[in-house]
Amino acid sequence: MKKWFYYPVICLLTLLATAEAKAQNFNTWTADPPAPITPRRKRPASKPKPTPVVRDTVAIEVPKVEQSRLIKRGLTQRMKAHKPLEEDNTSVEFFANNSRYPTAAAMAGAQGNVLIRLQIAPDGHVSRTSVVAVEPRPIPGYNTNMPPAAMDALANEAQRVFRMLKFEPASSTSEEELSASFSLQ
Question: Which residues on adjacent β-strands are paired with residue 112?
Fold first, then answer.
């Protein structure tokens, strides 16, 4: 067959297909009306919670272990003179039973001694604490540079526990210096 024969056949088939498509509404598109847009409700911005400010006078926490006796004033002088009384162990036992090793210090391998100055009110409660000295004690074979944040965590823990101590009442305010030792062993 010749090429000219195919051309009319193709045209005829195209016309038939087009007519059939129009009859069945192929290739026609009708748009539905758009759906109404409902705006999203914005959540009210949550206000950031205020961070608690730690000051020298902080609310005293309830100790896990109560003190068995009130501590006699003059503890610092007795310790420096190496003449402690039998009752002076109360502060050491109280610290051991109520302190928690700070996570930041444990992760950094920080250990050492912290010297805290306590101001004791006439009624015997600790009214103010301040850090006098922090002496890091590196672990042999471990990181010798203690991060300051880890040592601050040890000092904060010592202050927290020492604020819960109770001394014998007196006629005036007095000061004591107590040492806290933190060890990972």
Answer: 136, 182
